[in-house]
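The step that takes the researchers longest sounds almost clerical: writing a folded protein down as plain text. Below is the pair of lines this work produces for a single protein:

——
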Amino acid sequence: MRKIMRTLVTSAFACLLLPLGTVQADAGVLADPIGMTSGFYTDPNSTPAAWVSANPSDGRAPAIRDNIASRPMARWFGSWSGDIGTAVGSYVGAADAADKLPVLIAYNIPGRDACGGHSGGGAGSPAAYRTWISAFASAIAGRPALVVIEPDSLGDYSCLSQQQIDERNAMLRDALAQFSAYAPNTWTYLDAGNPAWIDAGTMARHLDGAGARQAHGFSSNISNYYGNDRNIGYGNAINSALSASYGYTKPFVIDTSRNGNDSNGEWCNPAGRRTGAVSQTGGGAEMLLWLKTPGESDGDCGVGAGSVAGQFLPEVAYKMIYGY
C-alpha cells in the first residue's frame, strides 16, 4: 500500500499495542480506499479473461478481450472459492501489489436466493457463516478494498418467516462488525436490490434492520439491467426514507455491467442488453461499478437457456458489447 500514508488522518489517541495478527480500526482514522489506490483492479483471471486465453483464434476473442476482459469488475466469493482466507488474501494481495482497488462480493449467506432459486446455496449454518465471513474480513486486513455483502439478501424476503429474517439480519450485522474490526480500510455495502423489486421505503427498513448505519453504503442493480437514472432515483428515495425514519443517509453504488440499454422488463438473460460505464464518480451515485461480469449467465433462462448461473457465455458477452 504505497499510498496509504497520504490518506490516513492520525489520531492523537492511537492504540500503541495490539495483539499479534489483529487489525483494529483506529477511532481517529478515516478509511479512504479510493485515495489509497490508483484506480480499480482488473482481474487477470476473470471468466472472460480465461475464455479469451483459452480461445485465441475465436473471432469474438478480440472484442471480448478489449471491451470486457480488460475492464475492472468485481470478483465473487462463495463456497466455490475454497479456503476463503487464502482466496481473498491472494486476490487482495495482487491488487495491492499493483496499487489498485479490488471490488469483492461476499456471496455465501445461508439460504442464499431462497425465494428465487437460481443461485441457491450458502453456508450450512449461521455459525459456519460467521466463521467464513470473519476469515474473509481478516484476509483483507489493512489493505484497501470495496466489499458488497450478500447481493439480494434484503430483497429475498417473500418466502422467509420473521424468524428467518431476524436470523439473516443478525448475520449481516455481524458481517459488518467483522469488517469494521479486521478490515479497517474496506468500504462495505449492503445490497438494496433494484428499482423494480422492493419499494424504497420498505428497502430502507430492511437496510436499517441489517445494520446499514454501520456500513459505508448500499448497492443497487446487481445483476440487473436498469439504467442509471432509475437507479439514482431509487437510491435517493431510499436515502430520503432512511433520513426520515432513522436519521441518516448513505452513499450508494450502481452495478452498470449490463445496463447500457436499460431494462426491457426481463431480469434473467434478456436479449439486447449492453455494458455500461465504470467510474469512480457516479453523477448522483457514489460510483458506477461492474459488479456482475458481463457475459456470465443468470441461470437457465432467456438467451442463456441450458446454462447455469455464473457460467460465462461468450456469445452473450459478444452481443452485449454491441447491444444486440
Summary: Confidence is low (pLDDT under 50) at residues 1-28. The two ends are 41 Å apart (CA to CA).
